[in-house]
Amino acid sequence: MANTAPWVVVGLDNGGTSNNATVLDSSGRFLVDRMVETPSLVREGPEVALAQLVRAFEGVLELTGTPRSAVRAVGLDSPGPADANGVIASTGATNFGHPAWRGFDFRGALEARLGLPVVYLNDGNAAALYAHHAHFGAEAHERSSVAAVVGTGLGGGVVVHGRVVTGAAGMAGELGHVHIPLDGLLEEGQPAPTCNCGFTGDVESIASLTGIERNLLPYWLTRFPGHELADVEPLAKAARLLRGHAEHGDPLALKIFEQQAIAIGRLFTILGNVLDPDAYFVGGGVVEAAPRFRDWFLGKVREHTALRAEQRRIATVALVRDRDMAGARGVALAALAAVRGE
Which InterPro entries match (predicted)? Predict the structure, then answer.
């Protein structure tokens, strides 16, 4: 006889400082409506980090009153670089600096630790998947979308018919490393921006916190002599303070964020010609801001997304909803689809 008892999946969003967990029942209803965080301790290596994920898993089950026997699968997301199966890159990563992480099978190790099937997505893909389903609801499997998530880098994803496109090597949706035209984006004499990946003029070199620190802020401080951020050290701290200045209308900050919005608009223009999606989503710290600044930034992205008239009648440019919870919710949706065989 088929097992008809209620069942759930768990979503675990693994970050550089915290894990966030959620529970999704078989009908597609989330059982928690807020962040459920525990320290991730990823810098202490895989063994410590895995123990923390188990703690997050058990904690969210206790919070929701869900028996462990009801869990059919677990979704896991983490920052990259990692392949489609959740194996961390052999060179390591910003959040996975401990040598034991290099080439570590993160998904497989958590699956062995929990004794449950584990589905893996990178954090950008997970946020993109949640944004897609939250926006389209029952029509999610009939629609397509792209998402750009601005953080330390530029993450994101491509969703077609409700499913994340991962690609042959798991590298699809690395939108931050798409090259964009720089003519008309940079000021005369402004140096071409470089990315940590080695590229010059990709989206992440402009639209990311790293891009602000490495490329944009050093230039614009020369154009605004005496600006108070010039006295803030280190430069990384000044970069983190920039959004607060933009929220208060600071001209230097608005110049920088306008360049970021132009970069994302040009990315969406390219993707519009390649994929012609139903929606373009923007997420991350740059839009987790005061409504006036957030709306201004999104308006600039729309202004610089060059779509054909036919596309403009159909497509929308919108925010990633519930950004802090989007990763955990996205991988929970992926796990639910896997259990259903979708």
Answer: ATPase_NBD (IPR043129), ROK (IPR000600), ROK_cs (IPR049874)
Alpha-carbon distance 47 to 45, whole Å?
Answer: 6
- Find tokens 């035209």 and name the residue: 181
Of the candidates 320, 328, 325, the residue with the CA atom closest to the CA atom of residue 282: 320
Please write the tens of the pLDDT for every residue from 141-153. Answer: 999 999 999 988 8
What value does the CA radius of gyration of the chain take, rounded to a whole number of Å?
20
Answer yes or no: is 334 within a domain.
no
The neighbouring-strand residues paired with 253 are: none
Q: Residue type at 111?
A: E
> Are the beta carbons of 95 and 101 closer than 8 angstroms?
no
Structural domain span for residue 257: 141-321
The answer to the question of residue 96 being in a domain is yes
Residue type, 6: P
48 lies in some domain: yes
Amino acid at 256: I
Classify the phi-psi angles of 202: left when phi > 0, otherwise alpha if psi is within -120 to 50, otherwise beta. Answer: beta
SS (H, E, C) the chain: CCCCCCCEEEEEEECCCEEEEEEEECCCCECCCCCCEEECCHHHCHHHHHHHHHHHHHHHHHHHCCCHHHEEEEEEEECCCECCCCEECCCCCCCCCCHHHCCCEHHHHHHHHHCCCEEEEEHHHHHHHHHHHHHHHHHHHHCEEEEEEECCCEEEEEEECCEECCCCCCCCCCHHHCECCCCCCCCCCCCCCECCCCCECEHHHCCCHHHHHHHHHHHHHHHCCCCHHHHCCCHHHHHHHHHHHHHCCCHHHHHHHHHHHHHHHHHHHHHHHHCCCCEEEEEEHHHCCCHHHHHHHHHHHHHCCCCCHHHHCCCEEEECCCHHHHHHHHHHHHHHHHHHCC
List the end-to-end C-alpha distance of the chain, in Å, as a whole number: 22
Whether residues 24 and 109 share a domain: the answer is: yes
- Report pLDDT digits (tens) over 171-216: 788 899 999 999 999 999 999 999 988 899 999 999 999 999 999 9
